[in-house]
Amino acid sequence: MSKIALVVGASGITGANLAEKLIAEGWETYGLARTPNTEINDLKPVAADLLETASLRSALAAVSPTHVYITTWMRNETEAENIRVNSLMVRNLLNVLSEKRSVEHVALVTGLKHYLGPFEAYAKAGFLPETPLREEHPRLDLENFYYAQEDEVYAAAKRDGFTWSIHRPHTVIGKAVGNAMNMGTTLAVYASICKETERPFIWPGSAAQWNGLSDVTDARVLAAHLIWASTTEAARNEAFNVVNGDVFRWSRLWKRLAYYFDVEATGFTGSIHSLEKEMANDADRWLQIAQKYTLKEEDLSRLATPWHTDLDLGRPIEVMTNMSKSRKLGFTVYQDTEETFYNLFEQLRASKLIP
To answer: What positions does the domain PRISE-like Rossmann-fold occupy (predicted)?
Structure first.
């Protein structure tokens, strides 16, 4: 039987990479976003606002997906508002699709804030889980929009009879423009500014992150995992961690990234050095760099999200995830993390997004 995929958030890091892989594997693939991705060959764009049911119903009138991949979210000022808005987006989508009776599986991408807490209490003392993080770790006694999104999927699955999977990547590394959580491109842009201005490439995070073990998730690994879980009987109705499969220390990788960009690396100096503050006055500098090298994106805020990189690298504990659950069920994809970063940098250069 034919598989028809609806990728919700197809313009983002996760959604774009997923759409490309689905198309490569022969799926009929629709990409939903407020501003649809038109750069992926054979991706069928769907322009809709997840907060507007009428907009969704109209945009999806001719689309009857068998598999739905929810890879998007909207950032708000408070966690209470995050919960209200992001749960509503999922609920609206699944309510509209419920009328079609075509959906067989819904995959939801969340992340490690499931274990570490929401932005307002992110990885604070008193809420620090045991690492490596495991899927059976109970929900924190905190408001968290990831929990609200999950609950919307569970409720719709019970009502409509589809299967589901929850995917919890660590920091996702991949190419995207205008993405709210984009460490890889943020570091590439920061290093490019350091190179152009002869500034040192300063580690922005904590001692625990500098010295401890960590892992990340290549967007291509996440794409493979989403397809695997949504088409594998044993993986149905389960939540999974998703990472590359190796571990690293930033104390080594930071120097390697600096070497790649030919900049001077400065490691942990005894206190956190906020990247958001470090890059606060770089918008004009980036504009000049973009014009000098004829880059495609002159708006620094469309490429770099230093506030989120500060959250990730400022954690007071080392953070790594356990992938045993997926491995035991047959998911064996592995990716070397250092190569993940270099591959991304090469993509950014080829796309004229960094010098």
So the answer is: 65-355
What dihedral angle (degrees, nearest 10) is formed by the CA atoms of 238, 51, 99, 159? 40
Single pTM value for the model:
0.95
Instruction: Report CA-CA distances (Å) from 196 to 190, 204, 292, 349.
Output: 10, 19, 11, 15
Residues 74 and 89 sit within 8 Å (Cβ to Cβ): yes
Cα separation of 320 and 176, whole Å? 24
User: In degrees rounded to 5, what are phi and psi of residue 168?
Assistant: -115, 85
| Residues 6 or more apart whose Cβ sits within 8 Å of residue 212 | 249, 317, 318, 319
CA 23 – CA 7 distance, rounded (Å):
11
| Tokens encoding 189 | 């842009």
Spell out, as residue ranges, where the chain has pLDDT lower than 50: none
Question: Would you say the C-alpha torsion 20, 24, 25, 29 has a positive or negative sign?
Answer: positive
Sign of the dihedral defined by the CA atoms of residues 148, 150, 151, 152, in that order: positive
Q: Is 259 a catalytic residue?
A: no
Residues in the chain: 355
Q: Can you give the pLDDT at residue 5?
A: 98
Catalytic residue among 146, 147, 190, 195: 146
Query: How far apart are the C-alpha atoms of 125 and 133, rounded to whole Å?
Result: 16
Catalytic-labelled residue, pool 21, 113, 175, 195: 113
Task: Identify the pLDDT of residue 354.
Answer: 98
Q: Tokens representing 61?
A: 């009138």
- Sign of the Cα torsion 216, 219, 222, 224 reads negative
- What is the rounded distance in angstroms from the CA atom of residue 95 to the CA atom of residue 34? 18
Q: Which residues contact 93 (CB under 8 A, 6 or more apart)?
A: 8, 50, 56, 68, 70
Q: Are 120 and 83 in contact (CB under 8 A)?
A: no
pLDDT value of position 36:
83
In 3D space, the residue among 120, 157, 108, 114 whose CA is nearest the CA of residue 139 turns out to be: 114
For 178, phi then psi, to 5°, come to 80, 20
The answer to whether 293 is a known catalytic residue is no
